[in-house]
Amino acid sequence: MTPNTLNTLLRHAGQHDKLKPSAIEHISINVAKPPILVDTLAEHTLLAFILSGEQEIFLGEQCYTVQAGDVLFVPFNMPIKVQFKLDKRPQFVSLNLALDEKWLGEIIQKIQTINHHASSSGVAVTKMTDPVQNCLARLIDQLDDPNLALAELYKQELMVHLLSTPLGASLTAFVSQDSHLHKIKKASDHLYAHFADKITVAQLADLSGMGESSFYHHFKAVTGFSPLQYQKQLRLNHANFLILTEKRSVSETAFAVGYESLSQFSREYKRAFGVSPRDDVDKNTAFG
User: HTH araC/xylS-type domain: which residues (predicted)?
Assistant: First the structure.
């Protein structure tokens, strides 16, 4: 990726440590100044094209290192920790594309691509090929075109090139109704929408159309969490948002995300974020 292309992206990104939507539909720009550690939720199925810097992504027991020249695929909403690492580059920069299942499925159907077996893990990383880099540069240049005349065509071309890389198997599995990835996505979507409810593994397995043992195995392989650990992480991430952003009280937050015991909530919150929920509430109060 040339310095001019990277400068174009930075010019449209604005401030650091912020994910900014671009003028091109479903495209956002992520710029972060390391070293920082972020607890977040990948709220879309996305492809992240890493243009500068390095990061480590922690998903349950799994860890992925991505750096400039890599493409990262995240198949659905996932509670992740991201460590932006300090290296010779002053900032981490990526262009993120939120994937629509129907849109991608239509592209795959048109080119009738055949891919090898996908990785058992949901998250996948591969190197950008020359065709991917060339097409990505043309897509980024579209940010300077007020009409965005070719942006949609370049997005489709980008997918065609990616389907020819090792990432193609994961992308194909994402849209295939019969794949384990698609079935686990269905359970994840349900947990994301109903994380405050009491949910059993048996219910999730039934929703996914899998046996309970097979579902548990594949869910942990794809997400890095057991189903109930995954639900707990969703609850805690949302609790962190309610306290820090909406300035909710500890008790109000605990019950809103599905906890019945305040002591259990406080214990698990501190284990996840390093401070108690009361400390975060007090910090909010101190800063107004």
Answer: 185-283
